[in-house]
Amino acid sequence: MHQHLHRVSLVIVISIICGVLRATNGDYLIGVGSFDVTGPAAGVKMMGYANMDQSTAGIHFRIRARTFVVAESSQGPRFAFVNLDAGMASQLVTIKVLEKLKSRFGDLYTEENVAISGIDTHAGPGGYLQYLVYSITSLGFVHQSFDAIVNAIELSIVQAHNNLKPGSIFINKGVENARINRSPSAYLLNPAEERARYPNNVDTQMTLLKFFDGASKKSIGAFSWYATHGTSMSRNNKLISGDNKGAAARFFEDWFTSNTNSSSTPVTNSSNRSNISTLVEKAKAIKATGGKPCGNLTSQGFKVRKNNGSLFVGAFCQSNVGDVTPNVLGAFCIDGGKPCDFNRSSCHGNDQLCMGRGPGYPDEILSTQIIGGRQYQKAVDLFISATEELTGKIDYRHVYLNFTDIEVELDGNNVVKTCPAALGPGFAAGTTDGPGAFGFQQGDTKIYKLWRKLRDLLKEPTHYQVQCQKPKTVLLDTGEMFVPYASAPAILPIQMLRLGKLIILSVPGEFTTMAGRRLREAVKETLISNGNGEFNNNTEVIIAGLTNTYSQYVATFEEFEQQRYEAASTLYGPHTLSAYIQEFKKLAETMAKGEKIMKGPSPPDLFKAQLSLLPDPFGDSPPPGTNFGDMKQDIIVPKNGTFTKGDKASATFWSANPRYDLLTEGTFAVVAVLQGQHWTPVYDDDDDFSLFFKWKADDSYLYSMATIEW
Ligand SMILES: *[C@@H]1O[C@H](CO)[C@@H](O)[C@H](O)[C@H]1NC(C)=O
Ligand SMILES: *[C@@H]1O[C@H](CO)[C@@H](O)[C@H](O)[C@H]1NC(C)=O
Ligand SMILES: *[C@@H]1O[C@H](CO)[C@@H](O)[C@H](O)[C@H]1NC(C)=O
Ligand SMILES: *[C@@H]1O[C@H](CO)[C@@H](O)[C@H](O)[C@H]1NC(C)=O
Ligand SMILES: *[C@@H]1O[C@H](CO)[C@@H](O)[C@H](O)[C@H]1NC(C)=O
Ligand SMILES: *[C@@H]1O[C@H](CO)[C@@H](O)[C@H](O)[C@H]1NC(C)=O
Ligand SMILES: *[C@@H]1O[C@H](CO)[C@@H](O)[C@H](O)[C@H]1NC(C)=O
Ligand SMILES: *[C@@H]1O[C@H](CO)[C@@H](O)[C@H](O)[C@H]1NC(C)=O
Ligand SMILES: *[C@@H]1O[C@H](CO)[C@@H](O)[C@H](O)[C@H]1NC(C)=O
Ligand SMILES: *[C@@H]1O[C@H](CO)[C@@H](O)[C@H](O)[C@H]1NC(C)=O
């Protein structure tokens, strides 16, 4: 430890003398990795809105797991941070990934130093979480979703590990406007003097890390953290998408590639590239098993993944996103366009009439592009102007806690407790990003007789639980429902990663704005007061939301009073946040003092208990007299037709069900242009924002059709 401090101060002295940054002889070993995480694109319920009608039916753009690994040296401390294009992390995914890493690397990567952080897209296939409440709407567990995610995370970490090279890391931060507060009435319940310390009812800061390869002097990636929900795509969307953060990552990676190599074109704004005056389509929907695909893309000279020559990974990570929406125009009544009721986000008592609007309203793709574009633009600014180099230790602390009954010491020796998990009626009301379907409103604390009976049929909450959760009324007693297996988590991991002056807090849920601020401040104070000068005002604390497992929301004690969606989804009662702060302070103290911490009780592995009710895919042969890849419909793309900017072309083919083969790291669709004798691919479903691969069953439900739009 001492030796290292000396090295750091020596390095600083040298840089001052030489007046240059030491980009060549980096402080750290750094590696980045990225792998396709796109799960089943047909007939699997999506994760996020709990909308039973929202099944996957194609791909807008593929989603990925993006990883960086940093190490002090090949033997020294390290950690891996995974940015996962999925709704959230899952305990079971984390358990299986760690098992796979153990068999590859021994004890190099463990629960302590691996963080898997979901971006909160609501447009990915569901069924990969182990607690029952999170797989009911996906008809139980979906092995294909789960395997795709586990595999992608593992391989992205392996790639990052294999890429470890000496390099340097720069940090930068700035203000971005891609969000508003979706529960401002709850925010207002926080103390006035506390609110007065902040200019805004949402956090506006984006923090970015820029990774440099010391030898080539080229950047190999950038990860940024910024809070805004992945709800630019609506509850009616059926295309797999990374929503605004996934889009930002695509834009950023394309920008980097095109700016470091003048030979490739940027695709952040496809308008330039769609100037194809004679569009000849050669899009192929690919049948995957039980026969030959319509074409071998590789043998036809089509790229499968662009730019594999020099990997650059740009990732947009989630933060304390609880009450933050990207639907920045606000929420309005769909019957008349008036603003919704302030306290309840409903219209004449109906939550379903109140909907948030994104900046591209009513076009959700445009909203995704704009909100993704703002984060991307900010990241580019921060990337270009980053000059502050990170130096100092890599460290981490991790502990499992049973949140069922944590004793929390409040000020004045007042001891309170967390409760078994439970959801209130405000949870069922949903939010202005996606209202619920059961006639509840945010803020409700009453439940009618019928619902009470239904609830008691599932599990009647104990008297203790009813008292403990107040002012929340228990609508679903998830923490006491264990049949056929646990409905909600009891054991949660909390984790703290250190990279020089940067502290990343891995939280297993969605903290509201003020909850996140309190946590960050408490951790920072604890580090400073216990760190013997090692931490100071410059210490940068950020929150990585939805990390390692998922336990819904965390609102402040005051916000809990109103029982809007976020509070009603704060599982462990009014003191949930206080418990987090207390336990994170313990992590901070041990880190500051260089001490170890007890591991705590391990979470259960419920893999064997999972129930799967999803039917098998169908459509493994084309209709008689046709072949896979035959055009079903070609009315919109006339031969030799001409198109101008803004026109949309579309073609429909007989295809197999995409669930037969995920075509991982590939594409279901390619649009190519005939240039002379040569077909040049221009769009695919991997990353082109302007191409849509849509799947559906024909009327007989026997055959599959793929439609390609661009
Ligand atoms: C950059 O451009 C050159 C020349 O056009 C090409 O050979 C190379 O593959 C490109 N590299 C990347 C990373 O795209
Ligand atoms: C794309 O670029 C065109 C012109 O360069 C511009 O008019 C258009 O607004 C841009 N679209 C988006 C979504 O940014
Ligand atoms: C379109 O291409 C032109 C010329 O290459 C470039 O100056 C312009 O920035 C591009 N516009 C967009 C929106 O990418
Ligand atoms: C589209 O491409 C054609 C042929 O290359 C060119 O003449 C025309 O100016 C382009 N149009 C636009 C809007 O860029
Ligand atoms: C596709 O073609 C490439 C190059 O010709 C070949 O290496 C590859 O094995 C083929 N893939 C399949 C699935 O046939
Ligand atoms: C991309 O990867 C393939 C397969 O590993 C390789 O054949 C090809 O040369 C690579 N392309 C570039 C530009 O490095
Ligand atoms: C919202 O509720 C608070 C407290 O219950 C009340 O004081 C306030 O007037 C309400 N605001 C509106 C706009 O209804
Ligand atoms: C968590 O704690 C509760 C109360 O002490 C206990 O009943 C429960 O078994 C624990 N849960 C797990 C998964 O260990
Ligand atoms: C840290 O910053 C705060 C506010 O900017 C200031 O009041 C305080 O004195 C600073 N503390 C130290 C140790 O610099
Ligand atoms: C399309 O254009 C080509 C070349 O100009 C011509 O040979 C061919 O007959 C045209 N096809 C149709 C269907 O018009």
From TrEMBL:
Gene3D superfamilies: Neutral/alkaline non-lysosomal ceramidase, C-terminal domain. Transmembrane segments: none annotated. This is Neutral ceramidase. It holds the Pfam family Ceramidase_alk. It catalyses: an N-acylsphing-4-enine + H2O = sphing-4-enine + a fatty acid. GO terms for biological process: ceramide catabolic process; long-chain fatty acid biosynthetic process; sphingosine biosynthetic process. Keywords: Hydrolase, Lipid metabolism, Metal-binding, Signal, Sphingolipid metabolism, Zinc. It comes from Quercus lobata (Valley oak).
